[in-house]
Amino acid sequence: MQIRYAVFTPILCRTQRFNCAINNTRLQMLFTQTVPGAIYLLATVSPRLDRYITLVKAYKMSMELDVFVGNTTIMDMEVYQLWLDGLTVSDAVKVRMDEGALLECEANPEVLTSDTMDQFRTFQMCERLLHSPTKLGSQLLYQIPAQNQIILIERYYEFDSVFAREVLGKKLSKGTKKDLDDISCKTGITLKSCRRQFDNFKRVFKVVEELKGPLVENIQRHFLLSDTLARDYAAIVFFANSRFETGKRKLQYLSFQDFAFCAGQLISYWTIGAMDSMMEDMDVDLEKEFLNELKDLKVLVNDKDMMDQHKILVCAALRGKIKVYKLMEVNFKNLSRALVNLASKLTHTKDVRDLFIDLVEKFIEPCRYDRWTVAEITLFLTHYTNAAHCLGTFRHQMIWDRYMGVIKSSQCSPLLHLSLIKVNYLSPTPSISSVSPPVNILNELNTFLICKL
Amino acid sequence: MPGKLKAKIVAGRHLPVMDRASDLTDAFVEVKFGNTTFKTDVFPKSLNPQWNSEWFKFEVDDEDLQDEPLQITVLDHDTYSANDAIGKVYIDIDPLLSCEAATVISGWLPIYDTIHGIRGEINVLVKVDLFNDLNRFRQSSCGVKFFCTTSIPRCYRVALVHGFVEELVVNEDPEYQWIDRIRTPRASNEARQRLISLMSGELQRKIGLKVLEMGGNAVVGYLQCFDLEGESGLVVRAIGTACTLDKLSPGTDSKEPVFSEDPPHSLSGPPTPLRTLPSSSPPPFSPSKPCSRQSSSSDTDLSLTPRIGKTSPASSPSPPLSAPFLIPTQKLTEFPIFTLTCFPPGFLVHVGGVVSTRSVKLLDRIHNPDEPETRDAWWEEIRQEIKSHAKALGCHAVVGYSESTSICEEVCILSASGTAAMLNPRFMREGCLDTGGSDHRLSRQPHPGMVGSERGEGEVSSTWLGFEDASPPSCGFVHIPYDEFNMPFPAQLTYCYHCRRQKVPDVLFTTIDLPAEAEVTGKGCLIQARLCRTKKKAQGEVNATSISNLLPFMEYELHTQLMNKLKLRSMNALFGLRIQISVGENMLLGLASATGVYLSALPAPGGIQIAGKTPSDLSYDQHISTMQKRIDDTIAKNKELYNIHPPECIEEVVGSPIPDRQRSSRLFRSTSESSDELSELDLSHGKKDAFVLEIDDTDAVEDIQSLLTDAPIPAGFYSCNTEVMPGIHNWTSGLQMFTSVRVYRLSNANLTNQGLNKIFTDLCENLLKSLYFKLRSMIPCCLCHLNFTVAVPEEELIQVRGHTYLSTPLLLWSGENEEQLQFSMELCGESTISNNQPTAKPSAPSVDYGSFADRCSTWLELLRLKAHTIRRGSVKTISSSERCSPLPEGRSRSLRSTRSLPCGAPVTVVKMTPLSFLPGTRIVKYLGIINMFFIRETTSLREEGGVSGFLHSFIAEVFAMVRAHVAALGGNALVSYSMKECVFMENPNKNQAQCLINVSGDAVIFIRESDQEAIPPLLTSRQTSSTGADGTT
């Protein structure tokens, strides 16, 4: 309970009487706040009159109740953000003061505190409704303008990608929730905010988990989120469901957005919904059948003829086009084996979880060792994929395309761009269709080729 | 005669989980009216049940229809144990009983439980088939319309004003019955809610009967209050003004402009033609004339009281007025008292000033609820007193009348206040002719619209013209109604600055809204006087006596404060004055709020001068002069702030309006013309040695402090407690309403008066500051209808309750093309203190301290014109020779707001406002009165977020329920909203709290003005219905 300031009039009266009696003695008054909540008034009447030094406990007045309710619920979106960030009222008041809130309307700290408390209470009461955003529109308790409702929901479900990166792929269980304080320490996000974000993930996960139909649309329908935010949630749900390993040190360089992109690719290539949108598809799970069929790709490395043929095709296509051609030619079999083995192993859940770490260890790191550029890898993978089609004896074209679709587009761009190239050649958000490398890389390629020739 | 009530339960949604095992609910519904109960089937395992029941039909007396609410209880079916109640919905059938109001109640209504709050919603359909009852001796009064609005409702026209109606019902409070010891809190709360619902229904029916008896068909300015007298019972009382209203047909609508329906609107609204009218010519007002024919028939109930009103207006100063008025006095045994605060132009002839009465009573157990004579007698006494005060002011009527109580243990202060006024005798006579026989009146009723109005128009406009000779409309009302040689109190009279013919006082206090025709200079502002006085704890008679003794001094102080603050803002009139005195165990709190304005017709107020008592000391002199400088600076600053310009500037303006011309012409003539004008100027200078205030006197210091410590309003904000902000004319239709409640606890019991005063002032200032801060995003805006309420519920606990209304109209003014927002807000600060007393002594004899207290309490108003209020010390009030511009600059340059906020989404947005209108919109239909009473209790206070969380959610719930009921009636706004009662009790040790809230208002359908222009009148009704349909979906 906030304690209010005091009133000094009786003391002033007394000192005034002093003034009459003593006449011309200097009056000194000190206001001290020794104990929070009570203000003491120290009246010193000249050094000679020490005995008059009095410590008077001033009146304190506490505000028991302070409520402000509007017919239309008024919300300050800046305060809302502070609340979402998990700040306490006093911290929020400090932040607001620093931002210069006191300059407006001749406010004082009390007014600011009262306003902040009130807003926080309003948000807290609305929180229940925000848990099921569809209800927010039909509930009668708070009259909130439609555009504000949208903002309220969107902001409530927004999350810190740093936090999301930490939780990504973990089971959204009580156990993880207990570890939130560690994450809070690590990321600098308040525990309260972490809990809210975690609960949001869990809530969305619970609702969408068993639903049929496209994941993103389901999330949008039930939580009224914007398209981008719904996609991010889809990634979180997808990772949480498949429990992909993302916490390993070798994967640390990848941001949440990188993984979200990968998730998008996985959803669009490897789930049931990816193939037949009419079917009652489940976007959340990888298609078991497909993963089983990936075993058949082994033929690409097991059949020596096919492998050689494949190599010849790829080499023919890439000759003169990449700097690392020599190394590629030498390592082709290893690289191909790595990729195909990766595919064939995916029948085991454990290996599915380790998809990313395996990719990095088996494919990306060798390439990195050989100083490949992203453009080179992209080009290689494109031709590597296409060349398989030309193999007369290879019959698993469709599976191959689905598999390589993910590897090619997602693994190549985001997984690699930070690891391989210290220089940022790629734009920060690589798109799926960016098979053609950016201009500067092309230029580099050109100069390289010119030198070579 | 019976009516048939039909109800259908359609569906429920968002129900709470009642069965933990399945996380679902097996809900069914009980529909109860009177003693008949119906049940729906159980809809198993769902939180969104679809009952789609048959129509439940109740055949009941229309008397019951008026009294009883329809009770809908939602329960959870339980096979093995008793069914659990989820919650209830009470539906007031009354709006369905009038053919002009709503026809069906249909929509989602929140299911409310007194312990858990809102628990889901239920969709119901309610209809009534009413068979008309023409029996003379019937007990019902179906069809009488009720309006909380204190002006003539927008889409109606007054045919007759019949006068004051009042009624009072008492009962035992269920909370204090023996049975309360054994029943659950829920049962007790529900019993209380039901009882109050019943009582208010009964009250409304009884008032309706009185209105029918008088020949009216509506009650305007209906004000219903609860007195929770604790042990001694529960009193529900209501007052209102009986009228015969004619509905304006769409045809007349378009022909007769806004004005005939809404005088205040013309003030606020954009119509530019009207702006120029008040000063120029009366004809445009003529359409409104027929509205104001009115009778002043006596209230039968009041006829018990001595008939002293007969010869009242003898002292009336204007001979043409007294003559016609005297004719009907044989019928006019009583003064007319009107609860209205807004009047059609020309209705008010003169305004005398505020009259108020307070009476301290000791409460006694009500022994026989059917014979509420004691309470009746108390109020009659008070009304009688008010009448005699009005008479003393030479007035024959009281307008803007209201009553209130403050109860602490067994002591009760009854207060009534109003504004003494002379009403237009022409209207009176017209009315009185009608009062010849009630049959006659009734027979006239059927054809008032066309014939009556036309006849009236011709006639009245001519009378008006005749009347205008005496006093032009824009300044007439400020002319003194009393005899200048026989004044009831010392006053400073001058000739009217507008017409130069009649005498006017130098200051005018009123409880009414600013009349539409009034000429205002600059802008208005909120003025508050706050006062705290300690008293000894006492019981019974001793207590009552000490309160009685304190009251007059409090009123005096409040008045002085108001006067000083008024001068500080260089204004000369107060409107909407509301003085609230609340009693606690060891202190009395007084809070007076009003809107100050500069009336062009009144003389410019003098400044304030301070002088020391014994200016011997040099430093002392210095102190005083700095003080004086500060005051002068403040006055100058305020003049700038409120746009009150000295006349010199204005005179140079080419084509300045009439009052200005008159003024300037007067300046030229002043030397040659009349000598008494000069003497009058001398008189005003004679005021110099007025206010005496000792600087070293603590009281005086406090006074000056309170004068100067009033925090300035942040730029962009305006505030007033009247319906419209004087001096601001362009409003946007965006509005926002708030309620704010604060409770403070004083921890130190040994408080002095000054200490308390300071605290109290700070509380009010802080509340305002908080509001300004909250609403800063809406700048520029105006807080209108700002209404503070204070109460002292517990020992050392100051409860400042505020409900705050805020409308955000967009305005364009003072020539700048910037968008300005304006709000209106009603705010009740409630401040409460009481001490735990040993249980009240039973049956203490009710002693009447009334007359004693009353006499003293009216001091305040008698002092109204006292410029020479002598106080210890020397604050001098000088009437300066400067005169303020009679023309607000905003007016001439005011632009019509062209932009209105985007129309709300198809979702039912229900607006709530304490104003009687919505700026920028037009009310097309009144759907009936909303009068709801809720109790909320909790035994898990901490879990609900403490007292603040508890009250916050409760108020939000009340708003939600009000909105839902308005929407179910097909409306999209609630006007004249007020939160009459907000009683909060807590026991933190037991983790408990309880709160009672009573709200009321008029449900309406409004359309935006822009829409209306686009749609021909015939279509509007169709659109209305579609709006209504939207509302129900």
Automatic annotation (TrEMBL), chain A:
GO biological process, one term: platelet aggregation
A GO MF term: fibroblast growth factor binding
CC annotations in GO: nucleus
Classification via Pfam families: FIBP (PF05427)
InterPro entries in UniProt: FIBP
Protein name stated in the entry: Fibroblast growth factor (acidic) intracellular binding protein b
Organism of derivation: Oncorhynchus mykiss (Rainbow trout)
From TrEMBL, chain B:
GO cellular-component term (any): cell cortex
Domain C2, first and last residues per copy: 1-109
Basic and acidic residues biased stretches: 253-264
A Pfam family matched in the record: YbjQ_2
SUPFAM superfamilies xref list: C2 domain (Calcium/lipid-binding domain, CaLB)
Keyword set includes Phosphoprotein: no
Listed Gene3D superfamilies: C2 domain (2.60.40.150)
Keyword Metal-binding part of the UniProt annotation: yes
Main localization (coarse): membrane
CDD domains tied to this protein: C2_KIAA0528-like
Comp. bias regions, Low complexity: 266-279, 288-305
Keywords: Calcium, Cell membrane, Cell projection, Cytoplasm, Cytoplasmic vesicle, Lipid-binding, Membrane, Metal-binding, Protein transport, Transport
Subcellular location: Cell membrane; Cell projection, Ruffle; Cytoplasm, Cell cortex; Cytoplasmic vesicle membrane
Region (Disordered): 246-322
Record GO biological process: insulin receptor signaling pathway; intracellular protein transmembrane transport; positive regulation of D-glucose transmembrane transport; positive regulation of protein targeting to membrane; positive regulation of vesicle fusion; protein localization to plasma membrane
Gene Ontology MF terms: calcium ion binding; calcium-dependent phospholipid binding
Protein name: C2 domain-containing protein 5
